[in-house]
Amino acid sequence: MNIKPQKTYSKMDNLKDSPTDKELSRLSPFELKNRIIAVANEKVKSDANTLLNAGRGNPNWIATAARDAFFAFGQFAMNESRLDFSMPEGIAGVPQKDGISVRFETWMRHNSSSPGVDFLRAAYEYCLVELSADADDLIAEWAGGIIGHHYPTPPRILEYTQRISRRFLDWALCSGNPPQGVTFDLFAVEGSTAGMCYAFDVLKNNFLLNRGDSIAIMVPVFTPYLEIPHLDEFDYDVLSIRADGMDANGLHTWQYNPDDILKLKDPKYKMLFVTNPSNPPSYAIDDATVDALREVVKANPDLMILTDDVYGTFVPGYRSLIADLPFNAMSCYSFSKYYGATGWRIALTAVADDNVFDRLIANLPDDKKALLNARYQSLTLDVPALKFIDRMVAESRLIALNHTAGLSTPQQIQMSFFALGSLLDKDGAYHTRMIRLIHDRYDALWKNFGFEMPADPLRADYYSEIDIMVWARKLHGQEFADYIDATYSPLSVVFRLASETGCVVLNGDGFEGPRWSIRVSLANLNEADYVRLGRNIRMILDQFATEWQASKK
Asked: Which of 19, 122, 187, 327 has its CA 20 to 30 A from that of 104?
C-alpha cells in the first residue's frame, strides 16, 4: 500500500471521513512515521529550518569508555593471533591460552597511555577479585571472543560474560538487592526484540501457550508487542490493562488500577506482558501494582510474566519484576538505549534457576511430553531435564542448528565491557549524568509547551506521551476538548506538526495509549531542539483554539 498524506492536513480540514486518514490509522506508528517524515521534509525544503525527528527512539549518544576498551583489547587480541603464527599474505593464528594473562599484563604496561587501557586494567582486576576469575581463562575468553574465531561456547552465553552480566543485572534490575537464593540463567540475544521473539516461540512450541489462550498486556506498550499476539500462529485472546491513573490535577500518572491487575487472579490468564518502564509514557510501575501482582500469583501461581526492562537503567533504584517475582517472571534487558548501542544488537534474557516455565513443562500431560521428547531428542538423552531457557536457545536455531546458536562472540565481549563499565562506576558518574542529560531534555520540552511537570522518581524520561485532550481541557475547558474531538482526527496533530514546523512525532494511540496522545522521543535530539519542539506543539494547540473561537462567531 502506497498512501501519501494529503496536503489538506496542514489546513486542519476535517479528516474523520477521509479514506486516506482511515487507512493511515491502521498502520503501525513505525510505518506511519515514513509518511510523516515525507510531509516534514516538504516543509524544511521550503524554508531554512531543519527537520526534527522526535519519532525515533535511537539515542544520539554513545558510551565511550567501554568502546575504547573494546577497540584497545582488539589490538591485544590481534597481537596474540600473530604471536601464534603470521604470514605476509595476511593470515595469522589464534590466541593461545597458556600464559596469556601475563602477556596481557605486560601489554597493558607498555600501552598504559592508550585510550581504554585504564578501563581494561580496572575491569581485569574487578573480575579477578570480585568474580574469582582464573586470569588465563578470562583473557583467553576475551581474546578469542573479540576476534570471533570460534562458535559461542557455551551457545547460551560465554562463561565470564554470564558471570559479569549476573552482577550487572543485580545492579540494573534488582537495585543492588537481588532476591535471596536465586540464580539467574542468562541467554545473550540479538537485542531485546529477538529475545521476545524467541520467548513467544518457545512458549508456543512447548505448549505453555496455545492458540486462543488468554493473555494480558499492560498498555501503552511498544507497538510490535501489540501485534505479535494476533499473528495467526499465536492468535491469543488479549486483555489490555491500561495505565489510566489520573492525579487530583487531572494529569496522567501512567500507573495501573490495582483492581484491573487483580483480574489476573483468574487462572484463564496464562501470561502477562509488560514493558517496564513503559513505552511511550516512560514510567516504572509503582509499588501498588507490584503488590497487586504478588496477590495475583498467590491465586494464579502458574501465571507467566514477560517483562521488557530496557529503560530500567534510566530510573534510579529500579527493580524489575524478576527482582520481586523471580519465580514467575522472565526479563529481557537491552544495552541499546543506556549505552547508545542500538547497532550492536546486544541484550540479555534472564530466567531464575527455579521458575514457573520449567514447572509447567514438567506438569504437561504425557502426550505433550512425548511430542517434546521427539522434538528435542537430537539435543539430549534426557529431554525432561532440558531447561526452558536452553529450549529457547534451541528454538532460536530451529533445534537442528542448535550447535551454531548463540550471540556472536565479539558482541558478547562488547556487552561484557558495557556491563563492567557500570559495575566500575562506583560513584555513579555515568549514571547520574545520563539521567540528567535526558531529564534536561524533558524539562525543555514541557516548559516550552507551557507547563512545568512535577518530579516523579518513577519517570524514566526516555519518551514523553502528551495527551492533547488533557491539555486542551487545562487550557480552555471541556467545550474546547469536545470541539477538537468532533472536528479533527488525532492524526491531524502529527501531520500538521510535520507540515507546518518540520517536526516529527508519533501517534500515541498506535501504542494503545490515549486516542489523542502523541509520543515524543527524548533520546535523539539536543536540548535546544526540544525547546523548539515544545513551542511548536503548543502552537498547534493554540491554532486549534483560534479556529474554535472563530467557529463560535
From this structure: 187
Strand order in the sheet with 463-467: 463-467, 517-521, 506-507
Any idea which architecture 64-150 has in CATH?
Orthogonal Bundle (1.10)
Quickly count: other Cβ atoms within 10 Å of residue 108's Cβ: 18
What is the number of H-type helices and E-type strands within the chain?
21, 14
10 Å CB burial of residue 92 (0-12, 13-18, 19+) is middle
Q: DSSP for 364-380?
A: S-HHHHHHHHHHHTTT-
The pLDDT-based confidence of 16 (bands split at 50, 70, 90) is: very low
CATH number of 7-57+429-551: 3.90.1150.10
What's the CA gap between 503 and 497, in Å, rounded? 6
**Do β-strands 269-275 and 304-308 pair in parallel, antiparallel, or remain unpaired?**
parallel
Distance CA(142)–CA(73), nearest Å, equals 8
The residue length of the chain stands at 553
Residue with cell string 487530583: 248
As a whole number of angstroms, the distance between CA 387 and CA 365 comes to 17
Best CA proximity match to 321, nearest among 515, 209, 182, 165:
182
* E-strand stretches of 443-513: 463-467, 503-504, 506-507
Q: Please write the tens of the pLDDT for every residue from 88-102.
A: 999 999 999 999 999
The DSSP line for 59-73 is -S---HHHHHHHHHH
Amino acid code (one letter) for 449: F
C-alpha cell of 446? 514541557
Structural domain spans, the chain: 7-57+429-551, 64-150, 159-423
Q: Which amino acid is at 196?
A: M
Do 231 and 246 form a contact (C-beta atoms < 8 A)? Answer: no
Q: Answer yes or no: is pLDDT of 210 > 50.
A: yes
Q: Is pLDDT above 60 for 123?
A: yes
- Architecture label for domain 159-423: 3-Layer(aba) Sandwich (3.40)
Judged against a pLDDT cut of 70, whether residue 516 lies above it is answered with yes
Task: Check if the beta carbon of residue 513 is closer than 8 Å to that of residue 497.
Answer: no
Per DSSP, the residues of 242-297 read: E---B-TTS-B-----HHHHGGGGSTTEEEEEEESS-TTT-B---HHHHHHHHHHH
Residue 3, C-beta contacts closer than 8 angstroms, at least 6 positions apart:
20, 23, 24, 35
Bridge partners (DSSP) listed for residue 306: 273, 330
Task: Decide: helix, strand or coil at residue 214.
Answer: strand
**Equal fold, 7-57+429-551 vs 64-150:** no
Q: Which amino acid is at 460?
A: A
